[in-house]
Amino acid sequence: MGGYEFQRAELDALEGVVRDPTAEPMSLTLPLLRHITNDFSHESRIGRGGFAVVYLGVLPSGLRIAVKRLSNIAYMNESAFQNEVFITMKATHKNTVRFMGYCSQIQRQFIKHHGRHVYAQLVKRLIFVEYAPKGTLDAHIGN
């Protein structure tokens, strides 16, 4: 599938979560999220916040989700991220978008830092939620 390494079953499971409002949020792989956001392309970008960029994810069926790519927040360790995901999974309200899942990938690789090669830990964290085509809440609230 275009150089992306994910299983068709993972894509089918995501379709199921999007279609079923009672489905439990799930964990996805980064390659799948790259695929549905066209490799996090500029054209797929639909928003930006203080700690994240939001991309439109389009599934083969045409269903859409919002994929929030969190900036590399040094102070949030894996345990804190998992706790935040757990709390978000339990929070539901008619005025909020539905939390559908997350991706957390920690990778070690050599990078150049201040002219030297160092072995660094690269952390990629994303969450995905129901797509709200009318934009953000602050766009609809008057001053």
Automatic annotation (TrEMBL):
Q: Which residues belong to the signal peptide in this entry?
A: none
Q: Which GO terms describe its molecular function?
A: ATP binding; protein kinase activity
Please provide the record's keywords in A-Z order.
ATP-binding, Nucleotide-binding
Name the InterPro entries on file.
Kinase-like_dom_sf, Prot_kinase_dom, Protein_kinase_ATP_BS, Ser-Thr/Tyr_kinase_cat_dom
- Please give the Pfam families that the UniProt record associates with this protein: PK_Tyr_Ser-Thr (PF07714)
Sites binding ATP sit at K68
Where the record annotates domain Protein kinase, the positions are: 40-143
Lineage: superkingdom: Eukaryota
| Name listed for the protein in its UniProt record | Protein kinase domain-containing protein
